[in-house]
Design a protein that fits this description.
The chain is an all-alpha fold and 302 residues long. It contains eleven helices and two strands, in the order ββααααααααααα.
């Protein structure tokens, strides 16, 4: 995850403002490109790309517009950079639509497009915008600008837990669709079942060990309320998928998956429309940010 831009040392000296920003860009783009490659290989993992960009890239872009872009004396150039931000957001929207509609072609096409746009955009900032700002701003002005940009970036992070968990629901749903669709499964029903089963179990684990306890701590419910209803439903869901895939016939896998779908539809809707927003509303920004980090890495691990 992206941390504050530290006063790190390079070759025995403190980084200058441009180097600090470059290091921050490197962290962002390295992770995003990894997630984009993962999306192309396995389209349901678009959920991870969308979650990460919503939490880290978009606040970064907004903060840049308010600070670095506003300080530039080349208004035409920065207008083009702002338009590139708009295009990046548009492409992310298309990837989200593809995940929602389970359109593999749309997801993979737009993931490639997003990668190309992002590389070009960061290159323009590094080779044109930053050197120009360094040239006509005093060092202390440039330093202050970078620090302000980073502070605004941190303030703009929403740590949207509803979106994070809802996107993981979509990832699981898309993988489930591979199991019940003979064409999509490509003869790999057992493999797809094993995949979504691991993801669903991890999703439930993170809800019960990270998300729900934080909510109960903040509300002092004492083990009562809507969380307990969800936990009881989790027990039923887990019981349905308790048998190891390698001990099941493909017909049993398909039947189990179809039984699971009807329960997940109702369960997920309760969480997305009621519980997740309720939890997000009770937690502080710092608490949401830490939960987002832990759960994102958990989803990424399966």
């Amino acid at each position: 995850m992206e941390n504050a831009i530290e006063s790190t040392r390079t070759a025995g000296r403190l980084m200058n403002p441009h180097e600090k920003l470059h290091a921050h860009h490197e962290k962002l783009i390295r992770t995003i490109l990894q997630l984009a490659d993962l999306t192309v290989e396995n389209p349901p993992d678009a959920s991870l790309l969308l979650s990460y960009c919503g939490e880290y890239l978009l606040p970064h872009a907004d903060a840049e517009e308010i600070t670095l872009y506003a300080a530039s004396n080349d208004k035409k150039f920065v207008q083009d950079l702002v338009l590139e931000h708009v295009e990046l957001k548009h492409v992310l929207g298309l990837i989200h639509r593809g995940l929602t509609t389970r359109d593999v072609v749309m997801i993979t096409t737009e993931a490639h497009n997003f990668t190309s746009l992002l590389k070009s955009h960061f290159d323009e900032e590094e080779t044109c915008l930053m050197p120009a700002l360094e040239k006509y701003l005093k060092p202390e002005q440039f330093q202050s600008l970078i620090e302000t940009a980073h502070r605004l970036e941190a303030e703009k992070k929403r740590s949207d837990l509803t979106a994070l968990f809802e996107l993981d629901h979509k990832r699981i749903d898309m993988n489930i669709s591979y199991v019940i669709d003979p064409v999509r499964s490509g003869g790999k029903i057992r493999e797809h079942y094993s995949s979504f089963r691991k993801q669903l179990l991890k999703h439930i684990e993170l809800e019960e060990t990270v998300l729900f306890p934080a909510f109960e701590e903040s509300t002092k419910t004492g083990g009562a309320g809507p969380v307990q209803v969800m936990i009881q439903e989790h027990k039923v869901i887990v019981s349905l998928i308790s048998d190891p895939p390698d001990q099941m016939k493909e017909s049993e896998i398909t039947a189990t998956t179809k039984s699971l779908i009807s329960r997940l539809v109702v369960h997920n809707k309760k969480e997305e429309m009621i519980l997740y927003p309720m939890i997000s509303g009770k937690l502080t920004g710092t608490e949401r940010g830490e939960i987002f980090r832990v759960c994102f890495e958990g989803f990424r691990s399966v």
